[in-house]
Specification:
By secondary structure, the protein is an alpha/beta fold. The chain has 2 domains: about 150 residues, NAD(P)-binding Rossmann-like Domain (Rossmann fold, 3-Layer(aba) Sandwich), CATH 3.40.50.720; about 90 residues, Orthogonal Bundle (ProC C-terminal domain-like fold). It is about 55% helix and about 10% strand. The protein contains 12 helices and 7 strands. Strands 3-4-5-6-7 form a 5-stranded mixed sheet, sandwiched between helices. A two-stranded parallel sheet has the order 1-2. Helix 6 links the parallel strand 6 and strand 7. It binds NADP nicotinamide-adenine-dinucleotide phosphate (NAP). The site of NADP nicotinamide-adenine-dinucleotide phosphate has 22 residues, from helix 4.
């Protein structure tokens, strides 16, 4: 995710010299610097110095040790933006007192500048901090500011969402092959249909319900397919999946909290 954001900022016109990356393995440092052109260090505190926005893009379990490395150099005129799933603003604020904190939940389409990131600000994050964080997060797609209690649902919907779409793509492709289409044709038909439908939905004033109605004539092929999906519980199954992901996000958040039992 850290590299996805760095590459996105470069595509958005940021100068590599205005960015800095911190990694923890020398071979990764060489790879990353070669791949991005961004100065890369093994000493996180060095990357932090002089930067307005600091993005924390390590796994939730690695957040405490990273904060230990940067605690003494982060200042109140900087903004710490966390991408770490489930790690609360309160836990960041207790580790970095007085520092503006932004907690966010991006997703992987950020790699093609089509990400969706929800974010929320901590008690020290003023309008300028929120705007500077949104400028970084928005370099790779759309952003929305929401309250922190909604981030578990966001994780289940847009954070995990690409996996639902990829599963749909897999299932449609397999079904297309079973109907006799060659593999390469099945993939092209499915990928372009998903891309085109997503673009139509995102660019239209009409709801998903209306757009679906427009391709469904009574007694037609789409109606036959929709009947099977509805009867088979497609809608209820997706609802259960999103509920399960929301619940899991809450559980992971509770285990990542500093108050949780080890
Ligand atoms: N992937 C997603 O779809 C997604 C979506 C939303 C949010 N997120 C969040 O984004 C964060 C990163 O996820 P990811 O999928 O990008 O994980 P990842 O591929 O494991 O990347 C994390 C990187 O952080 C490095 N790292 C760990 N501790 C470090 C330290 N102290 N200093 C410098 N680098 C350190 C790791 O180094 P090594 O290579 O040595 O392990 C690894 O390269 C997570 O908190 C996750 O919850 C991910």
């Amino acid at each position: 995710m850290g590299e996805i954001f760095a590459l996105g900022l470069l595509r958005a016109g940021w100068d590599p010299e205005d960015l800095a990356l911190a990694v923890r393995r020398p071979e990764r440092a060489r790879e990353t610097e070669f791949h991005t052109g961004v100065p890369t260090t093994l000493v996180a505190a060095e990357a932090v110095r002089g930067k307005r926005v600091i993005v924390i893009a390590v796994k939730p379990k690695d957040v405490p040790s990273l904060l230990d490395q940067i605690r003494d150099v982060v200042t109140v005129d900087q903004v710490v933006v966390s991408l770490a799933a489930g790690v609360t603003i309160a836990s960041f604020e207790s580790e970095l007192p007085g520092i503006p904190i932004i907690r966010s939940m991006p997703n992987t389409p950020a790699a093609v500048d089509e990400g969706m990131t929800a974010y929320c600000g901590g008690s020290k994050a003023d309008a300028a901090a929120l705007a500077d964080a949104a400028a970084v997060l928005g370099a790779v797609g759309d952003t929305i500011q929401l309250s922190e209690d909604l981030l578990d649902a966001v994780t289940a919907v847009s954070g995990t969402g690409p996996a639902y779409v990829f599963l749909l793509a897999e299932a449609m492709t397999e079904a297309a092959i079973r109907e006799g289409l060659p593999h390469h044709a099945a993939e092209r038909l499915v990928h372009q249909t998903l891309r085109g439908s997503g673009m139509l939905l995102a660019g239209s004033e009409k709801s998903a319900f209306r757009l679906r109605g427009e391709v469904t004539s009574p007694g037609g092929t789409t109606a036959a397919a929709m009947h099977v999906l509805e009867e088979g519980g497609f809608r209820a199954l997706l609802e259960d999946a999103i509920q399960a992901a929301t619940r899991r996000s809450r559980e992971l958040g509770a285990s990542a909290s500093p108050d949780s039992a080890p």
